[in-house]
Amino acid sequence: MWAICIHEFIRLFRSVKSLITIAFIAGVSYWVSDLVNQAAGFISQHELTEGHALGVFALVMLFGPLFVFGLSHDMINREVSSRTVRFLVTRTSRFRIVLGKCFGVLLFWLCCMLVTFGTVLASVHTFDVKTFLECMSMLVYSVSLCLLLSVLIARPSYTMFGGIILGLFLPILGIWTLASSQPAAKWIGYLLPYAYLEKGEAYIGVIWLYALLFLATSALLFQRRDF
Amino acid sequence: MPLIETVQLTKRFGERTIVNSVSLTVQQNEIFGFLGKNGAGKSTFINMLTGIVRPSSGTIRLFDGDGNTAEWKRRIGVLPDYSTFYDSLTARDHLLYLSRVKGIRVTKKECDRILEEVGLAEHAGKRAKAFSFGMKKKLGIAQALLGDPELLFLDEPTSGVDVESSLQIQQLLLRLQKEGRTIFMTSHNLHEIEKICTRIAIMKAGTIAAAGSLSELQAKHRSWRTVTVRHAALADKPYELVSFVEGLGKHLEWREEALSLEVDDKRKVAALIRAFVHAGVDIYHVCGDEPSLERIFLEE
Fold first, then answer.
1. ABC transporter domain spans which residues (chain B) (predicted)?
2. Residue A54, SS3?
3. Is A88 an 8 Å CB contact of chain B?
4. Does B290 score more than 80 pLDDT?
5. Residue in B closest to A83 by C-alpha
């Protein structure tokens, strides 16, 4: 499992797309934190700490799913379509393959967040643990949903298209569910991470439960596949 | 001790039954050849044994039921059909990565030794995307050999490989058998199967049409044997002799100085000789061939 995890992690880091994504997130976060820092005299210390991480928070909430789907939409079906998965399934359990892939992508995003929050820490000397956890929760949800999509859909070209649509649609749907008073919005909101992030504290655990559900479903579906 | 045992193994894809209730046993230290036309179900069968495809019904027992699936996977080596590789990895990196996936630690030196065995030593540092089909096949065999597996599943190990490399692979397989490994392989190269396999199974439309050692299969097909008669040159073949010979057997080939014919009874060989003598045609040489694997394959 760890070999697959490390392989996936290194593959992501080798990609130019990934490096541009990290540079973009870190750059915007640094710029926003610097901007907020210039207004330090007008806001409280608590708000200042949250304000420093506002850039990365907004980026992850609005574009996190898009970034994740853009970089990892084919984490499983790429191996299936190129048939390299046959080398894996004859060596280790299918559950370990799914877990390894998922952990590899998560490790990449953890590093990306550490780089981003590290940049903020280096520039304005604050590290907002709460925002960091919220961002990671959003990314865990997106990665596990991306994994499920990659197991469900066999062709990488389809998941690329579907992933981009979903990546753009999820934040729009999330904002609508938060802003709308319609009953449907409330029910749909329960399926998305945004409502739980807004409620905060223990509710964030629900996002992780959803991620676990997506992961378990992916593993179950992968278990039943023929290659 | 049976190393592979399947009981009524079946695979269906929707309405189509690809492998139909196949029961097969492969003993330890055998090189078992699996033959069949394209679409006969060979690859699906081997894929079920290796965990690539899930059986619809039936059971598979490897290593006499000793250990669980995870342990089996550590003890087998697999060359799947249509081997494709990670474009960005070199041959050596492939072996290092795939050995780690298997849960074993292999040194670079060990990887290079395996690559040398399959004739890829000088390409160890080259990326797989630059490899030809034959080189990819060799890399496929190399990755199957990782971790010294007791049981090897090789799906067409020499297809697309040049003659020299093919012979090198055959020698390697024979050496592995001598060292105590069991090999289960498919091939379209009947000569290769005839040469190196200790037992053979012929698959037809998802079922085993025939199985056994080459001599057992030959014995089963010995009722038809090819007789070759070399005789004096005949400008005009006597009509009576021609009509007699035509009625004697099948697959008659008659050139100016030689005749070959398949007969189902050895008494017909004697009758054939008598007919030649009666027609006044001198016979120089008569021989009866054992049924070839090619003929057995085509007849099954």
1. 4-230
2. helix
3. yes
4. no
5. B84
Q: Three-state DSSP class for B6? A: strand
**CA B204, CA B193: separation in Å to the nearest integer?**
17
Tell whether A16 lies on the interface with B, counting CB pairs under 8 A.
Answer: no
Residue from the list B47, B70, B86 with its beta carbon closest to the beta carbon of A93: B70
Chain A residue closest in CA terms to B153: A90
Residue-range domains of chain B with CATH: 2-212 (3.40.50.300), 223-299 (3.30.70.980)
The answer, for A90 touching chain B at a CB cutoff of 8 Å, is yes
User: How many contacts does A have with B, using Cβ atoms within 8 A?
Assistant: 57
- A3·B101 Cβ contact <8 A: yes
A7 touches chain B (CB under 8 A): yes
The strand pairing partners of B262, in sequence order, are B226, B250
Q: Do B78 and A90 touch (CB under 8 A)?
A: yes
DSSP assignment, residue B90?
B
Predicted local distance difference test score (pLDDT) of residue B159: 85
Residue of A nearest to B147 (CA): A91
> Which residues of chain B have a CB within 8 Å of the CB of A227?
47, 52-53
Predicted ipTM of the assembly: 0.86
Distance from CA of A137 to the nearest CA of B (A): 28
> What is the SS3 assignment for A154?
coil
Torsion on CA atoms B234, B240, B244, B250, rounded to nearest 10: 50
According to the model, what pLDDT value does residue A119 have? 87
> How many Å apart are CA A101 and CA B162, to the nearest integer?
37
Structure tokens at B168: 């090198």
Residue pLDDT, tens place only, B3-60: 999 999 999 998 899 999 999 999 999 999 999 888 889 999 999 999 999 999 999 9
CB atoms within 10 A of CB A184: 10
Contact yes or no for B31/B197 (Cβ under 8 A): yes
Which residue in chain B is spatially nearest to A79 when comparing CA positions? B86
CB A101 within 8 A of CB A92: no
pLDDT score for A81: 93
Residues of chain A in contact with residue B53, where contact means CB-CB under 8 angstroms, are 226-227
Pick the closest to residue B242 from B232, B251, B252 (CA basis): B252
Yes or no, beta carbons of A227 and B53 under 8 Å apart: yes
User: Mean pLDDT throughout A152-165?
Assistant: 93
Q: How confident is the model at residue B220 (pLDDT cuts 50, 70, 90)?
A: confident
Q: Mean of the pLDDT values across residues B189-196?
A: 87
Over range B264-272, report the average pLDDT: 85
Can you say how many angstroms the Cα of residue B61 is from the centroid of all Cα atoms in its chain? Answer: 22
CA B129 to chain centroid: 29
Backbone CA torsion sign across A201, A207, A209, A215: negative
Given a contact cutoff of 8 angstroms between Cβ atoms, the answer to whether A94 and B53 are in contact is: no
